[in-house]
Amino acid sequence: MSRIRWAVLGVAVALLTGPSSTLPVAGREVPSLEGSWEVTAVQRAGESDPHQVGAQLTFAGNNVKFQPKVEQFVDGTS
Questions:
Q1: Whole-prediction pTM value?
Q2: 13: part of which helix (H) or strand (E)?
Q3: Is 34 left (phi over 0), alpha (psi -120 to 50) or beta?
Q4: Beta-bridge mates of residue 59
Q5: 13-50 pLDDT, tens digit each
Q6: How many angstroms separate the CA atoms of 59 and 36, rounded?
């Protein structure tokens, strides 16, 4: 697994370990991350990295699923 996937997984797990489905923030509650999310931007060492854009993160209870973007390559032989 690449470093960025481990980092995303680590952040997701840290966010999901709370005791309830909402997180208190400055006197108000923020809804949970439950559901599917699409990666819209990735930066690596301060530079844009478009290779992970389009990947999916799905949060269900205490589970996180990372589905990388599917890239199609054309080799020009067919």
A1: 0.48
A2: helix 3-16
A3: beta
A4: 35, 64
A5: 555 554 445 555 666 666 678 899 999 998 888 888 88
A6: 6
